[in-house]
Amino acid sequence: MIVPARNEAATIARVIETMSAMPLVDEVVVVDNGSTDDTADVARAAGGRVVTEARPGMGHAIRAGFIAARNDWVMKVDADLDRFDTSLFSRMIAARAPGVGLIKGQWQDPRDAMPMTRYLVMPALRQMFPALGGLNAPNSGIYAFDRSLIALPEIIGDYAADIDVMLRVHAAGAEVTEVDIGRLDNNPRDGAHYSAMSDTIMAFFLRQRDLQITREIVVLAETAAQVATGCLGTVASHARAGGRVSIFLDRADDAEAAALRAALEMLPTVHIESLAGVIPFRPAPTASGIRLIAPEAAVDGKPLQSALQMLADRVEAEMRQLLLMADTPDTTLKADMGVDIARGAQIKTDLLQELGVPAPDDPMREVFRVRPL
Description:
This protein is α/β, with parallel strands linked by helices.
């Protein structure tokens, strides 16, 4: 159980006592988000485990709490729960099932028309992430999810954090669902409050849409050094944003492959295995498409050609794309596509240095040739 709290000394003890009494809750982590009152001391006295996050903002607070949690499944609630029938929260825990990664708590508020939900979040989801378009409470801040599915340190630090968690779980291939947790009598917010949130959330939606986080990347290569040279920046950037990546190597058990795994181990949406693993591979049920990447020099030879054909047979033509990459630093590639790799540049630079491979001329960009498949 994660409870972000700022100046909640008057209510935090009762929240901890109430949440601790729920079945299957074995810890309550209170994130003291820059409180100027006795929130932290009161929380400790009530049996909560206190984590301090000095940076203001819900995103920073919940990120710190999720990282500190001991269990994979965690629930996030507010520090002021007086208006809820908290006994209904157990419905979120009960809704866990194979394939489900996040359960939103949906409530009814007769005094709030939910303008953010109705006029921004729901339409944005229907247009940009249609598989989530049927949710009734997509921006609910009360939810339970499997934290092992996503890269927790990458969660955004602002108002959009709860939506970021949802989109990351979705992009990771897990189902997002919701359950009714009753009625909330809330105090209506003014227009200025919603206006500030709208700008932040819309900017976030547009950024995640442009990053195509639900489009899976599948890399086929002979060696980890080829991946490091040709596409590691693209792979790391995609995974840091929340997207799924599968890397299949002909040499998956050597020292280079071990170094590649270590470089990406903090990104749980990345999976690295032997090329033989292509045989059972299927895109995630939430995938909107698949981007295949392979070395230009090796793509026409076996075993990469067989693997590519196998993948092509499983993905509809309009949902797949093949990119050819340079497999050595001195390879001349007739590129027709460039990718900004700023978010993955440091990971690539560090691994190239470890492998003793020369750094590229442009450390912030990777280029590819698009080939029909």
